[in-house]
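--- STAGE predict ---
source: upstream dedup step, 1 unique chain passed
mode: sequence only
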Amino acid sequence: MLMKEATARLSESELAHLGNGEVAYIRKIRSDEVSRCFPEAPDIDPNVDLWALFGADGTPILLTDNRSSTFYKAAEDELKTVSLH
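--- STAGE serialize ---
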């Protein structure tokens, strides 16, 4: 018996919004990336470890020097989190 594989087809727009409002990702961010992702942030010492929380579509949500804060903010906003390396 042959089984056909089901293939889901998503448009670019649908793919871009997948997980929006439900999923967020956390990643370490370098100080030189801050102004691009968080333009309103002040200049930050390059020696400080920074963590950022982003929406599934890449929208910046939180910038902090405390990794735990990203998880607290995600939980507060009822977002499931994933970490990116």
